[in-house]
Batch of 3 targets.
Target 1
Amino acid sequence: MKEQLLEMEKYAAEHNVPIIEKDSIVYIMKYIKANNIKNILEIGSAIGYSSILMAGVSNDIKVTTIERDETRYMECLKNIKKCDMDKRINVVFQDALEVNLSGVSYDLIFIDAAKGQNINFFEKYKYFLAKNGAIITDNLKFHGYVGHSEEIESKNLKSLVSKIEDYITFLKNNDEFTTEFVNVGDGLGISIRKDEK
């Protein structure tokens, strides 16, 4: 599998596909192990890199991952099959805001998709979080731009960073969840329901 992961890292670099930073995924894998997580929902598959690594923590972990970009979705399916994980990782080709889930719950929900939609993803999927589960969000530092938006010249980038800053405020002021901000990789947020701490 190591060879596959290296190939995926190379593909991501060549095709400009954002994949999770090494430090972040190592942290999440440790978290999965420490908290005995078995059922994971990932919002934003890209090419399957993080779902393969998360599923790889233990043989009884199941991952459902959602991707709306067709090229990435196809690449993701290919990579999962190559790693012989197609029985444990289910890839859904749809916009995560339009997916209908019912009767399922997840020990971990990992948000790593369109950053401007983080609040919407959180609000939609929190209902599918199992008791004592966690919602982990990646890229809360967004390459060091978060908290320094006054230095950004590009309007689009400025608007995106401002949405991530709004999401951080949303997490900090959330009545339902407590969020721990972890300064690892590109910045992670780990949100847990307050009544379960």
Note: DSSP finds six helices and seven strands in the chain.
Target 2
Amino acid sequence: MASFDRSILPGGEGNITLSLRTKNYEGLLIKTAQVHTNDPRRRVITLSLRASVATPITVSPPYASFYGIVGEIFSLPVEVKAGLDKPLFLEPGKSNLQDKITYTIEEFEKGRRFRILFTNVPGPAETFRGYLNLQTNYVEKPLINIRVISRFVESTGTNACN
């Protein structure tokens, strides 16, 4: 978002205000904006915003994506890390994974790092989208939503190496 003084007298000063929404961003964030002027020496000026966005909880990757052959079993880890200087606690919440995906929550570093291990339940060829909600004790982020995407297809019976 930008706001600025539309007209500035020659030799005068003006203000340009840039704001950045950081929701769903984390880590280093760099954005640029171009300012077009009627100054013949500097028609375009580029402004840069650099921000280090800290989050109360990091989920990496933000979703679990399965793709495979019917009958095969896959497991995918998702890491949850505390970003605040207080212990993090996780509790299973709502989920629509039913009999398609199972999960376990493992704590690797007490109150700091967790691994959610998703494993598919063998079934028919299908595409499935679901989610797992985890309740937290952080008022800054009381709910974590992890999306799960899976697609299982019948084997073609051919070997790509032949």
Note: DSSP finds no helices and twelve strands in the chain.
Target 3
Amino acid sequence: MTVIKRYPNRRLYDTESSRYITLEDLAVLIGENREVKVVDSKTDEDLTRRVLVQVLLTDDQVQKLNCLPVDFLRTLIRLRDPSLMKLFEHYVGMTLQTFTIAQQAMQQNLELLQKMAPVPADLLTNLLNRLRPGT
């Protein structure tokens, strides 16, 4: 897990590489499937969610928000009850886990298909690569 410290001036410091980074650099780390945790430099408060939202709102990333259905965004805005928010968080987490499992299964099936029939499988690989998040 890479720990990023966020300073009061909003600068981000990568403790692993011992350098300051930008939100774009953070997006690259996440795109490389690195586990990242952002903490406040003084209080060690976990700021990961807040900073990830900031990453999504950068010019380079904002178009990715278009994949979120408007009903999802409305529901998120309307949530007020903490217990409903926890339930929603759990539900979304389970949905993402299911998506990841399905994606891994599809990748395994594709690899098997590549061994059996290399040329048609290459076409499917190219298609899946375009569908993969972060590509």
Note: The chain has two domains: 1-67, 68-135.
